[in-house]
Amino acid sequence: xxxxxxCLVRGSINIDEFFHVPTxxxxxxxxxxxxxxxxxxxxxxxxxxxxxxxxxxxxxxxAIGSDGDWVLNGLKQVGVDVGPVIVxxxxxxxxxxxxxxxxxxxxxxxxxxxxxxTVSSDSVTSTTFSHLLIQNEIPFSSTxxxxxxxxxxxxxxxFNPSPMPNIQQLRELPWDELDWLIVNQGEVLTLLKAxxxxxxxxxxxxxxxxxxTPATWPSHPxxxxxxxxxxxxxxxxxxxSEN
Length: 243
What we know:
- The chain is an alpha/beta fold.
- The chain is built from 7 helices and 13 strands.
- It has helices at residues 43-53, 69-77, 122-125, 140-152, 167-172, 185-197, 221-231; strands at residues 6-10, 14-20, 35-41, 57-61, 63-65, 80-81, 86-88, 94-100, 106-111, 131-134, 156-159, 180-183, 240-241.
- Helix 6 packs across helix 7.
């Protein structure tokens, strides 16, 4: 049986570099930024921080480069256990280069960096946890391995399919091992389209279906229909959505 009350996040760790610009740069254009800031990021690290700030115990497994010590220190300060995080000297910490305008428009370039470094599966199997939270910013094989172990020990599994897996990955994903699917509105519609167009994706419907959505979500009938269809694939018939 899994340990009650500890979340394991197997995911990405990035350095986010923000360049504040008056407009998004055009091809061939050189543009000066008005402000620069650097923050820790990555979907895995961000979600681990959210879990810690919510008051739960959380362990993060991932990889950084030798330039990412300050990122780990920041994670420790908010209560994230980063003991299993490995440091590689072969790749820099993953990067997000972000242009941001005063209107909030952005343009992002990602470099996976150390997020695709080899992390032993023992890091997951030797960690005690009751909940597994995974995304799609690390090697898909690592995501599947973590999910398989979590299912074996009967831990609750939560998957945020972002960036969206390709069709082959959607086919390989063991949907019956997922307890919670965390998606935004765009991802709901993208998934539904994939399920409807590819019968090789194993998503047998289950009843009953429970939806949990933010109050701010629109009541558009297409969104509602997509929610019901996607929600039905979760093993415990649960669905969690986020903006």
